[in-house]
Design goal:
The protein has 131 residues and is mostly helical. Strands 1-2 form a two-stranded antiparallel sheet. 61% of the residues lie in helices and 3% in strands. It is built from 3 helices and 2 strands, in the order H-H-E-E-H.
Length: 131
């Protein structure tokens, strides 16, 4: 009688770690959902990424050349300008010049009054006496 109890106890004790191992091997529902989400995102983004790669192959050498030639000057401009929101978008003139206009200051847009504001006294209409 002792042996069947010992055998059952042995099976229970050795089976518990095996059951725990199989649970850890399977991804949870949350992990499965995240995996499906990222697979869908990858599938949706792959055409856009291929297009971006094509653009980089086309414009990459031109951008590299531009940065090598104009990089130091652009760095000086970046150091000089503190707030880019104070400037309009760059504009290319007919002669090829590129200019950036500073936006007008909000205070400068308001025209200052040339006449000082004086308050006229409240006088009663002529012929009426105020008591």
């Amino acid at each position: 009688m002792r042996h069947p109890i010992a055998l059952a106890l042995f099976i229970c004790l050795t089976g518990a770690p095996l059951a725990a191992q199989t649970e850890d091997d399977e991804p949870s529902l949350m992990e499965k959902g995240m995996q499906q989400f990222f697979e869908g995102l990858r599938d949706e983004m792959s055409p856009a990424l291929r297009d971006l790669q094509g653009l980089m192959l086309e414009y990459g050498p031109k951008m590299r050349e531009f940065l090598e030639e104009m990089g130091p000057a652009m760095g000086r401009v970046l150091d000089e300008v503190e707030d880019w929101t104070m400037y309009e978008a760059p504009e290319i003139l007919p002669n090829g010049d590129i200019i950036m206009r500073r936006k007008p200051d909000p205070e400068a847009e308001q025209e200052p009054d040339t006449e000082p504001k004086t308050r006229e006294p409240d006088l009663p209409p002529s012929g009426v006496t105020d008591l």
